[in-house]
Design a protein that fits this description.
Length: about 160
C-alpha cells in the first residue's frame, strides 16, 4: 500500500504518497484534500497534485519523479526503443529505426554523386530486390523505415514495368 489516508479528525484529508520502487525512500505529502472527499477521491486528488510522480493503475503503484521514467504506465509517454536488426553505428550499436530511415532517405536525395546510366541490376534482380523490400515494409509496417522500403519497391517496380 503506497498511499496513506489519514482518518484522524480534522478538516482535511492528508495523503502521503510513497515511491514503490524497492529501497526508494522518497515520500511526498501533497496539499491536503478536503475532508468530504472519499478515500479514493483523496488518493487521485493527491496524485494529481504530485508533479513529476507517475501512477500505474494496473500495478496500483506510484513512482517518484526519479523513478517515473522507468515506470511503465499510461502516465509516461516513453516510446519503446526500435533498434535496427542488422544496421549498426560505428561503435557497433543498433540504430534507431526512425533515425535510420531519415538517414537513408537523405542519402537518396544526395545529389553530390554523379549518376551513371549503367545498369546496376538485371531486371530479374531488380524485381527480387523489390520483393525483398516489400517484405521489409511488411515487417516494419507503420514505421518510417517500412514506408521507405515500400517507396523504393514501388520505384523499382515502375522501372521494371517501364
Ligand atoms: Zn523512487
Amino acid at each position: 500500500m503506497s498511499i496513506h489516508v489519514s482518518k484522524a479528525m480534522g478538516s482535511l484529508r492528508r495523503v502521503v504518497l510513497s515511491c514503490d520502487v524497492v529501497g526508494c525512500p522518497v515520500q511526498l505529502e501533497p496539499e491536503a484534500a478536503e475532508r468530504w472527499r472519499s478515500d479514493l477521491d483523496a488518493r487521485s486528488w493527491a496524485r494529481e497534485h504530485a508533479p513529476g510522480w507517475s501512477y500505474d493503475p494496473v500495478g496500483q503503484t506510484d513512482y517518484c519523479p526519479t523513478h517515473a521514467q522507468s515506470a511503465i504506465g499510461p502516465a509516461t509517454d516513453a516510446v519503446p526503443p526500435q533498434p535496427t536488426a542488422s544496421a549498426r553505428d560505428q561503435s557497433g550499436n543498433p540504430l534507431n529505426r526512425d533515425a535510420y530511415a531519415t538517414q537513408l532517405r537523405a542519402r537518396l536525395t544526395d545529389g553530390s554523386r554523379p549518376t551513371e546510366d549503367s545498369q546496376v541490376l538485371t531486371f530479374a534482380e531488380a524485381e527480387v530486390v523489390a520483393r525483398l523490400l516489400e517484405e521489409l515494409a511488411g515487417v516494419y509496417r507503420g514505421e518510417s523505415l517500412g514506408a521507405l522500403a515500400h517507396d523504393l519497391a514501388t520505384r523499382l517496380d515502375r522501372h521494371i514495368v517501364g
